[in-house]
Amino acid sequence: MSTKENQNEVLMEENNQTTEVSPSEKKSTFEKKALLVLSAIFVAVLIGAWGYAMRVQQGVASNSVTTHADPAALLEIERMRGIASSQMDNGRAYFLLGSQNIYDKQKKEKETLADALTAFDKQHNLPGISDVVKRIQDLQKKNQEFFDQAIEHRDKKTESRIVGQFYQARTTPLRSQLNEAFDDMAHLHQVQIDKAQEEIREAAAQAEIQIPFGMTWLSGSLVFIFISMGFLVVRLLRKQSFQLAQQKRLYDEAKKAVQDRDETLFAISHDLQDSLNMISSTAERMASTPQGLDIVESGELMKSTVTNIEGLIKDIRDQKNTEMHGLTLRMDQLSVDNVLDSARLQMQPLAKQHDVRLQIDSVNPPVLAFYDNERVLRVLANLIGNAIKFSPKGEKVVVKVRSDQKYVNISVIDSGPGIPANQLPGIFDNFWQAKKTADKGAGLGLAIVKTIVEAHGGTVQIQSQTGRGTTVTFSLPRRRPVGASLKKPNVIVKSNHAPEWQ
Length: 502
Ligand code: ADP
Description:
Structural class: alpha+beta
Strand order of the largest sheet: 2-4-5-7-6
Bound molecules: adenosine-5'-diphosphate
Helix content: 55-70%
Number of domains: 2
Radius of gyration: 61 Å
Strand content: 5-15%
Order of helices and strands: HHHHHHHEHEEHEEHEEE
Shape: rod-shaped
Largest sheet: 5 strands, mixed
Mean pLDDT: 82
Low-confidence stretches: 1-20, 432-438, 484-491
C-alpha cells in the first residue's frame, strides 16, 4: 500500500474515531461493566459469609438447648430430701417431747414438701419424673398415716417413748424408700445434664468443621474476585495506554502526511518552475535573437516542455482518481509502434536539452498489443524522462521491445548512476524519492507507471546497479481481456485490479 493511501487511511481512521464507538472502547465498557458485576458479587459474598456465620452460630446455640437440663434441679432435689428427712425427725421429736412448736414445724415441712413436689413436677417435664414424684407423694401419705396412728396412740395415753419408738419403727423403711426415690429423681436429671453436655460438645465439634469450611469458601471466593478485578484493572490500564499510543501514532502519521504533502507541493512547484523557466528563456531568445536560433527546434522544445507539464498534472489527477474510483482505460488493439513514435516525438527535445541520445527503434515486424495509447504514453514519458534526467551528458537512453505469446515487454535502459539496492523496495510507492535526488521530481512517476501497467494486466520491474545504470521493464497484454468483443472499437476497463486476459 502506498504512503499516500496509508495517510488517507490514517486520517479516515481518525475521523471514524470521532464519530463511532471503536471496538476497543466497546471492550473497555465491557470491562467496566464486568468490574461492576464483580463488585456486586464481592458484596454478595460478604453478605453470604455473614449469613453463614450467623447460621453456624445459631446452629451451635440451638444444638446446645435441645436438651433442657437444669443443674439447679439437683439442688432442689437435695433440698426436698432434707425437708422430708427433717419432717420425720421432727415428727419423732414431737412424740418424744410433745412440743407444739415442733409439731407446727413438722406440719409446715409437710406442706412445704408437698408444694415443692408439685412445683418440681410442673417445672421439670422429664420422662419418668412424674412417676418418681408420685412415689414420693405416696410415701408422704404413708408417713402421714403413721403420724396419725402415733397421735391416736398418744391420745390413748400410751407412753411418749413407746409412741416415739412406734413412729420411728414405722418410718425407718419409709426413709430409705424416700432416699431411693430422691436418688432416682437426681439420676434422671443427671442423665439429662450429661446428654446436654454431650450435645454441646457435638455442636462445638460441628462448628469446628463448619467454620474452617466456610472460611475456605469465603477466602477462595474473595481471592478469585480480587484476582479477576486485578486482571480487569490491568487490562483497562493497558487498553488505555494502548489507546494513548494509538492516538500518538495517528497524530504522528497525520503530521507526517501533512509534511509529505508540503514536500510534494514543493517538488511539483519546483518541476513546474523549471519547465516555465525553460519556456520563458526559449521565448525570450526567440524574441531577441530570432536569426541565431532554430525556430523549429525551439518550438518543439517549448511544446515538449508544455506536454511534460500536462503530463505531471495528468499524473496527479490520475493517481488521485485511481485512489478514489479506480482507473478508467480506453483500450484498443494497436501496434506498439504507435505509442513508441509518440514517445520519441515527445521526449526527443528533452533528450536534446540534456545532451542525451534517445534511441527508440521501430518494432519489425510490427507487434500488436491491447492498450490505452494515452496512458501508456504517460508510462513511457515518465520512464524515459527519468532515464534522461539521471543520465550523464553524452550518454544514451535506449527503449527496447521484446514480445512473447502473451505479452509485449518494453524496457527503458539508461547508464546513469543507478539506484542503491536498499532503496529499490518501495520505489513504486507514491512520493517516494531517493533522498539525494529529491530535487529532481515529485516522486509520483513510478507510482503512476505501476498503476497504469497493472490496470492493463501487466507487470513492471526495475533492475539497477549503482554506477552502471537502470533498466525499467513493463509488460502489456497482446490479447483482449476476457469478455471483451473484438467488434467493439475499444474496451473500457475501470478497476483497481488487473483484468484477466485470454
Ligand atoms: P520523480 O522522478 O518525479 O522524482 P519517480 O517516481 O519517477 O519520481 O522516481 C522516484 C525516484 O526514483 C527518483 O526521484 C529517483 O531517485 C529514482 N529513479 C527513478 N528512475 C531512475 C533512474 N532511471 N535512474 C536513477 N534513479 C531513478
